[in-house]
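Hello,

I think I submitted the iron/sulfur cluster job twice by accident. Can you confirm which output corresponds to this input? Input:
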Amino acid sequence: MEPLLEVRDLKKTFDVAPGPMGGKHLKLKAVDGLSFNLREGETLGLVGESGCGKSTTGKLILKLLEADSGEVRFRGRDILSLSQRKMRPLRREIQMIFQDPYSSLNPRMRVGDIVGEPLRIHGLAQGGAIREEVIRLLSTVGLSAEHYDRYPHEFSGGQRQRIGIARALAVKPRLIVADEPVSALDLSIQAQVVNLLQDIQQEFQLTYIFIAHDLSVIEHISDRVAVMYLGRIVELAGAEDLYLEPRHPYTEALLNAVPVPDPTLRRTRIPLKGEVPSPIFPPPGCHFHPRCPYAREICSRADPPLEDKGGQHFAACHFSSEVGRYRKS
Ligand code: SF4
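Support: Only one job matched these inputs. Its output is below.
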């Protein structure tokens, strides 16, 4: 079956202006040759520390940013080559949910109008049918008809995220790019919103790209997980595989940061040295080598390709078979 979404060698650089002391314009490689497929109904978790390019990837897929090169094929059509006019009908099918629902909801509009606006714009309902559909959508996301005439500031963070989800659902999308949709919420509310996203996935046959900066958030919702580091995917595998047997030291380090409630299951700490390097000056060879506990001489010279290490478990590491050494010792 043809994938719903195919991303091939996607690249995006940003110009960085010189500092007050002058100098050259520099290039920041935000997304550096990303490739992956997404099957209909699947959830791909896209994870990495801030600045790794995951949110830029989401915006490139939605054409909210123009890519430098590469392909994004949605239902077989290369959307990067489409004009804004030809893109318009596809926009309905690809929606985004944002991290901060407050800034993405117009504070001067009532909830009924916020959720109903896309129905009007895309001509999906008219007159009284809009109100009926909005009330149905509000109830789908756990809100009610009495919320229809209220303003965004009258809601909690979790409720505002529900409004954002209802607005995205209004146009009956097939793919939703959820950009850190629960990062700004309290832990208890995070679980509720993730559960809601799982419930509506079944009901509306949705496909998700779920962007997060930590692996715990996406563990239960993802079918597969792609781990990004400095604009590249360094590991891509089925979620269970990746959580049980990571093949990239960076994934292993991220897993170590995930709290484990049962102390007998606590993972051995692996030293993750230093900060994420600047994407303007990525380290040579494997970009992760200055922080990697497994690094050897070759790592600073040769850039490891993203390869299938068996069973569709992809990793970009010269020594992927050794990952887990510290946990097992
Ligand atoms: Fe670490 Fe070398 Fe693997 Fe890079 S290639 S992740 S530096 S062991």
